[in-house]
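okkk here we go again. third time trying to get the zinc ion bound version out, last two times i messed up the smiles copy paste (missing a bracket lol). double checked this time i swear
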Amino acid sequence: MVSTDVASAHVVTAILVGLAVGSFVNVVVARLPERRSLLHPGSTCPGCGTAIAWHDNIPILSFAVLRGRCRACGMAISWRYPVVEAATATLWGLAWLEWGPTLDFAVAVLFLTALVAITAIDIGHQIIPDLITLPGIVAGFGANVATGRVHWLDSLLGIVVGGGIFLAIILASGGGMGGGDMKLGAMFGAFLGWKVALVALFVAVVLGGGFALVLLGTGRVRRKDPIPFGPFLAAGGAVGLFWGDKVMRWYLHRFAE
Ligand SMILES: [Zn+2]
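finally!!
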């Protein structure tokens, strides 16, 4: 049982590191769309400008202790902060359980952390920033060249197929989808390879379409209102990363024999 205890201790470590990374993701989400430095200055309250002490900046805990308010001025702190931290930590824990101490784990958490940042930024600003997706395309291709988890040609094809699908939609619809979605599709291809990227896009369309139907059906949005697709793409990407290979194998076994 010793090895199990050691393994679960490491899951806790992965979750704690994920919490700290999630805290940094919050900085990225707040500052990257405004092109502010990610490192300087330290965190301040957007309401009163008071510097936030380290003990008021502990992921999730501080939000709970402060009951979601600035200690100095009492301004409400966005729920985005603890949610982003919890999501990042959960994904890091799940990735550790799936891949353990491997290079694949490092690549997986890089991809998943980028997806959390993209989701929060798209919800807040309706953009998927090039500053994440363009380096992401390079990182995904480079990681697969280094690890061989996905064949480099599969990854390269993925960039073309993942980006190409969105390019075709943009050209056919004259808008409707943004260039940000296209670059995220290419990033999926780079990390996941073209087949699993298609699984990820399919999952995203099902989730996003279902959500849109619910909103339309309940009269929460009108037909022309834009619904950000980034969060559904991100969810599809995570599903593709964890289960894409299994879905592909099941599909090939079920329909191609
Ligand atoms: Zn304040």
